[in-house]
Design goal:
The protein is mainly beta. It contains seven helices and 93 strands. Helix 1 packs antiparallel against helix 2. This is Myomesin 1b.
Length: about 1250
């Protein structure tokens, strides 16, 4: 902007009024310099004088010429020759304001609505501005209540400015509800431009927010298509849930294409929202067949004919349409009858052969060389009856029109006549006869000779093509036939309706990222025009697609559904009943991209600081920035003297980027007005309205000036964030805090209340606890030591409402441990930018945070997260409706994220089980573990000389070794790796653990080999039968025919014929702890072997003192406490059924003495010890027992199975080899327990046990109570 002068400055050049004379002075200086040059030459004095006179004359003539041509003498300020006048119009009508302005230089004209500049680009299709030959006009299309306003037209040139005013009042045709209280209506969650296909179902819906909500009052919900009110039908279903309005199109047809409008009417007014719906043709049943016709209607109906009309389809799929077939169906049936045998090219056809009084529906099909199209949507039912009878049934008079002629169809020529009934009161019973006459003759022929017609309308068929006819009508009643009417003018049958000419120049204009505005010149030769079809094509693709499937009547259309960034060309053709015109010439190529325009004017100019010769101004950003970022602002000022403003002067030549600027070189105690222009890449916008008049005098107040540049971010249903800039004028002391005030938008001034009770040092504040959908305004005050200063300008009202599709900033830690903040916006445009800030200050240092933006997503990546990164991070998306969000990174949150980052940088594969070992068949050793989750690319590292198996479905990893060798002793480790994730598990096998495992492995290996032939499934065991026989048995597997079983005893094979009794050993005697035992061993013992014990040749009678038994292969006889009576000969007799055997032994003499000595000399505890001793604490305990045995036994005392020794507390004595005493001098609770005495000598060991229980007297007394 600094390199060139903006174009608007050319209208405000502050040149001196004599700047033309300055050019003349330049000429004089040139001539004077030339005269001084020639003075140095060798001229004569006479020639010098002549030249001087000639020069002065030329200078005088030159000056007179510029004096006559000076524009100052022609300039004059603007003047309204014709001022705009006020209008009152109905809703949906158009209004045009125009004026004529004179002035030199030509004035620049700007239109305002309620002092706000009107920008046609900001509201496409709403406003149209024209300026031709000093006549300026403003056209407002489809007026609604919002267009009721005061309009101002301002004319301005370098000589001055002048304005004229006019009012527009828009009245509604709808019933208005009396205003009891103000209700606000907001339509949100809106349906957008929609695309459907024939046969599909489409729903359009909007959420409607009305506040305050009145439960007993429901708004009026209406739906319109192309400004026509829709009613519920089988095609249209409407629903209102209380907060959402829905329109469902049950079966789409091309007739449903158009601009749909939702109108919500409350007692305080109404709110509307509109969007276009496009309906594409369904796939053809026959490849290459044309699209279906549309908008089938009944143009005229009588008792014997109905004239059907329709509109041609937009596409023919590459083959011209040959004609159309019309089908009819009688209401109440499903039988369709084709009405014409050959296709008709004209989009109008009279259907005859109808039954009077019956109702019919119609449909139309198109045909080309490829085949027949799908049928159109069925028309509304219409009855074949006389119009007079129809009117009479409705209770209305017959509709009368003048003569109407319908043109030739492809098969028949016809004319439809209509007339006015005769005047008079007696019209009952009046009927009509129609007569025709060929032009040039006087021969009148009655057409309806048999039955007169009742209605004043009649169709004549079978007329001669090319001839001219005149027609007249006679009335008749019961009195007779009246005089004929005046004949009509000659009408030639066969005049064809011509196909319209091609439209003129097509001009495309950028609109949005997916749409283009296409305008064109109307067809010059077009009768009964139905509308236009528009087609678009990507450059060089040679593929044309229809932009609309229903003809549009205007010469301007917005083509939606285009591809962003592609370059398109467009063409248009017109259509009427005769057919489609030729295509227009292709338009210039246009790129599909959002249009840009110069921004609207800023507003809200205020003073932030004032000194003797300068003032600091602030203003608010324009409401419309033109689709491109604002690059700067230009400020103008003018002095106001006695209420009369002077000329505007430029305050800055170069654009300023901030919305605050110091205007210097002012005069103290003078009054000034200011205006501001905004600039973007499209140019400099129109200036704002002049500000209030400010006095330039130095501020001396002690408190601060007002904060400025208030901005609202992150609007949600219960909160928002308010930002501001500190005041320029700080007062006597620096600013040390700010206060934020809030109130409802509709509340009075007394409703202002503070948000923060304690001043905040920050220039931002999050306002919470808002009421959803409520409108709020805010202001900010600064304070210093002197007090609280001026309030800032009030913000624009903002509703506390979370907009649909609003996203929040999400924190993410990726697989590499990188921490990032992510924000997604669904409303981005091609020019949108994601602006990240920390603590609401834009970040410029990329060393700590890197921003990556792709499409509608932006990511802020932390480089090395640390404590210096703690703060509030926010993201604002430009060129949207305030899309923004924030994320607070606290110290705790940073710590949590760093832990997650570390886990992601150094991930660990989780294990379900650690490394374990088990033995398999054949003695093989299996090492295994199970991972919780591993991907298909995971690998396992183990011992290279062994094969590793990895089941990726179950996560089981195993290594199998055939056997263990001493070299395998050590630590086994499995290492797992899955991408970056790792883990390992180890198992230590050394020492006894390894040896035991190796031993078991070898055993299992041998067992496996053993079981390859005959092997024992159950090893040898025995079973005692009821006959007291012992049965040896085992279970052998893998037996074959040639397998044999061999029995052995002590290594000697047992033959099958060997006697069991012969396997016994001699009978022997031994002593036991309780007496004497006689015993023998047998090699084999079973139930067949019978054993009998004898004493002195008599069988022994067994008792508790004398018992016998078998232990393994030992047969024994036990005599407890033997006496001399037990001396004698003992024998054992065997009998196995094959033979018997007797073994004997003599218990007498020295053998008996030795046994008796053994028994008498064994150590014994003879008695004297009680089982339990209960004694009071502090008492003395003394126990004595008798000990016997020879040699004298060793005595040992035990307490709780632990040996005790004698001491002062516990005295242990063994006297005379016979008496053992146990004495405790003063027992205590610690002496309670189990005591034992153990006696032992070479003949045996014996013990005696007793228990000591010590009680406290108090406890004992309590128990008794």
């Amino acid at each position: 902007m600094s390199g060139s002068i903006p174009f608007y400055q050319k209208h405000h050049r502050h040149y001196d009024r004599g700047y033309r004379s300055k050019e003349a002075e330049s000429k004089v200086s040139q001539y004077q310099s030339s005269s001084r040059y020639t003075a140095g030459s060798s001229m004569s004095a006479t020639s010098k004088s002549a030249e001087r006179i000639s020069l002065n004359k030329r200078i005088h003539e030159h000056g007179e010429h510029f004096k006559r041509m000076n524009e100052d003498s022609l300039m004059h300020p603007p003047e309204f020759v014709i001022k705009p006048r006020s209008h009152t119009v109905w809703e949906k009508q158009c209004v045009r304001l125009h004026c004529t302005v004179s002035g030199w230089p030509d004035p620049r004209v700007v239109w305002y609505k309620n002092n706000v500049t009107i920008d046609p680009l900001a509201n496409p299709g709403k406003y149209k501005l024209e300026s031709r030959y000093s006549v300026h006009s403003l056209e407002i299309n489809r007026c609604d209540f919002d267009d009721t306003a005061q309009y101002r037209v301002s004319a301005m040139n370098s000589k001055g400015e002048l304005s004229a005013f006019a009012s527009v009042v828009v009245k509604s045709r709808f019933h208005r509800v009396l205003k009891l209280s103000t209700q606000h209506t907001h339509i949100v969650d809106r349906f957008g431009v929609s695309f459907g296909r024939e046969g599909e179902t489409m729903s359009l819906g909007c959420t409607v927010i009305i506040y305050p909500s009145l439960h007993r009052y429901q708004p009026e919900i209406q739906w319109y298509r192309n400004d026509a009110l829709l009613s519920p039908s089988k095609w249209n279903h409407m629903h209102w849930s209380g907060d959402r309005a829905t329109l469902t199109l049950t079966h789409l047809n091309k007739e449903d294409e158009g601009l749909y409008t939702l109108r919500v009417t409350t007692k305080s007014g109404y709110e509307t929202y509109s969007a276009y719906v496009f309906v594409r043709d369904s796939d053809a049943e026959v490849e290459g067949a044309p699209g279906a016709p549309l908008d089938v209607r009944c143009l005229d109906a009588n008792k014997d004919y109905i004239i059907v009309t329709w509109k041609q389809p937009a596409i023919d799929r590459g083959s011209s349409i040959l004609g159309y077939f019309v089908d009819r169906c009688e209401v109440g049936t499903n039988h369709w009858i084709q009405c014409n045998d050959t296709p008709v090219k004209f989009a109008r056809f009279p259907v005859t052969g109808l039954v009077e009084g019956r109702s019919y529906t119609f449909r139309v099909r198109a045909v080309n060389k490829s085949g027949m199209s799908r049928p159109s949507r069925v028309s509304e039912p219409v009855a074949a009856m006389d119009p007079a009878d129809r009117a009479r049934m409705r209770g209305t008079e017959a509709f009368t029109v003048c003569l109407v002629k319908h043109n030739q169809s492809a098969t028949k020529n016809y004319v439809v006549l209509s007339w006015k009934p005769p005047g008079g009161k007696c019209l009952e019973g009046v009927m009509y006869y129609v007569e025709k006459c060929v032009s040039g003759t006087d021969s009148w022929q009655r057409v309806n000779t048999e039955i007169p017609v009742k209605s004043p309308r009649f169709a004549l068929f079978d007329l001669a093509e090319g001839k001219s006819y005149s027609f007249r009508v006679r009335c008749c009643n019961s009195a007779g036939v009246g005089e004929p009417s005046d004949p009509t003018e000659a009408t030639t049958v066969g005049d064809k309706l011509d196909i319209p000419s091609a439209p003129g120049k097509v001009v495309p204009t950028r609109n949005t990222d997916t749409s283009v505005v296409v305008s064109w010149e109307a067809s010059r030769e077009a009768k009964e025009l139905v509308g236009y079809y528009i087609e678009g094509s990507i450059v060089n693709s040679n593929v044309w697609e229809p932009c609309n499937n229903k003809p549009v009547n205007a010469t301007r259309f917005i083509c939606h559904g285009l591809m962003t960034g592609e370059i398109y060309v467009f063409r248009v053709r017109a259509v009427n009943a005769a057919g489609l015109s030729q295509f227009s010439q292709e338009s210039e190529p246009v790129e599909v991209k959002a249009a840009i325009a110069s921004p609207a004017p800023p507003y809200g100019i205020s003073v932030l600081e004032c000194v003797r010769d300068s003032m600091v101004l602030a203003w608010k950003q324009p409401t419309f920035i033109g689709g491109a970022d604002i690059t700067g602002y230009f400020v103008d000022y003018r002095e106001v003297i006695d209420g009369v403003p002077g000329k505007w002067h430029e305050a800055n030549i170069r654009a300023v980027s901030e919305r605050a600027y110091r205007v210097s070189d002012l005069k103290e105690n003078r009054k000034y007005q200011f205006q501001v222009r905004a600039a973007n890449m499209a140019g400099v916008g129109i200036p704002s309205l002049p500000s209030d008049t400010f006095l330039c005098e130095e501020w001396t107040i002690a408190v601060p000036g007002p904060p400025h540049d208030l901005q609202i971010r992150e609007v949600r249903s219960d909160s928002l964030v308010l930002l501001w800039k500190p005041p320029v004028y700080q007062g006597r002391d620096p600013v040390n805090g700010f206060y934020v005030d809030i109130k409802e938008a509709d509340a009075p001034e007394e409703a202002w209340r503070g948000v923060n009770n304690k001043a905040t040092e920050k220039t931002y504040l999050k306002v919470a606890n808002l009421k959803e959908t409520e409108m709020y305004v805010f202001r900010v005050r600064a304070q210093n030591k002197a007090g609280v200063g001026k309030t800032s300008d009030v913000t624009e009202p903002v509703p506390a409402l979370t907009k649909p599709g609003t996203k929040e900033i999400l924190v993410d830690v990726d697989d590499d441990g990188i921490i990032s903040l992510n924000f997604e916006c669904c409303d981005v445009t091609a020019d949108s930018k994601f602006v990240w800030s920390k603590n609401y200050e834009e970040m410029t240092d990329s060393s700590r945070l890197t921003v990556e933006t792709k499409g509608n997503k932006s990511k802020a990546v932390f480089q090395t997260p640390g404590e210096e990164d703690i703060g509030i991070y926010s993201c604002l998306v430009t060129h949207t409706d305030g899309a923004s969000s924030s994320y607070t990174l606290s110290e705790e949150e940073l710590k949590r994220l760093l832990e997650i980052s570390h886990d992601h940088k150094f991930p660990i594969i989780p294990l379900k089980s650690e490394l374990a070992v088990e033995l398999l068949e054949k003695g093989r050793v299996r090492f295994w573990l199970q991972a919780e989750k591993m991907s298909a690319s995971g690998v396992v590292l183990g011992l290279q000389k062994y094969k590793m198996n990895f089941d990726k479905n179950t996560g089981v990893i195993e290594m199998i070794m055939e056997s263990l060798t001493p070299a395998d002793e050590g630590t086994f480790t499995f290492q797992l790796q899955d991408g970056k994730a790792t883990n390992q598990s180890s198992l230590v096998l050394i020492g006894d653990v390894f040896k035991e495992l190796q031993k078991e492995s070898e055993f299992q290996r041998k067992e496996w080999f053993r079981k390859q032939g005959p092997h024992f499934i159950e090893y040898l065991g025995y079973e005692v039968t009821p006959e007291c026989c012992v049965l040896l048995k085992c279970k052998v597997g893998n037996m074959k025919k040639e397998t044999s079983a061999l029995w052995y005893k002590d290594g000697r094979e047992i033959k099958a014929d060997e006697h069991l009794a012969n396997s016994s050993t001699p009978l022997k005697i031994t002593s036991t702890e309780t007496g004497i035992r006689l015993y023998t061993f047998v090699s084999y013992y079973n139930d067949l072997l019978q054993v009998t014990w004898h004493y002195k040749d008599s069988a022994i009678s067994f008792s508790d003192r004398i018992k016998s038994g078998v232990v393994g292969e030992q047969l024994w006889l036990q005599i407890t406490e033997p006496t001399e009576k037990d001396m004698g000969k003992y024998a054992i007799e065997f009998n196995d059924g094959k033979g018997g055997l007797r073994r004997t032994v003599e218990l007498s003499g020295q053998a008996f003495d030795d046994l008796t000595l053994f028994l008498s000399g064994r150590a014994r505890v003879a008695g004297g010890l009680p089982d339990v001793v209960t004694i009071q604490e502090g008492k003395a305990l003394n126990l004595t027992c008798n000990i016997s045995g020879d040699p004298i036994p060793e005595v040992t005392w035990l307490k709780n199975d632990r040996e005790i020794t004698s001491d002062d507390h516990c005295i242990l004595k063994f006297e005379s080899g016979k008496f053992a005493s146990f004495t405790i001098t003063a027992v205590n609770t610690a002496d309670s327990g189990k005591y034992s005495i153990l006696v032992k000598n070479k003949y045996g060991t014996e013990s005696g046990d007793f228990t000591v229980s010590v009680f406290i007297p108090e406890e004992a007394g309590g128990k008794k109570k």
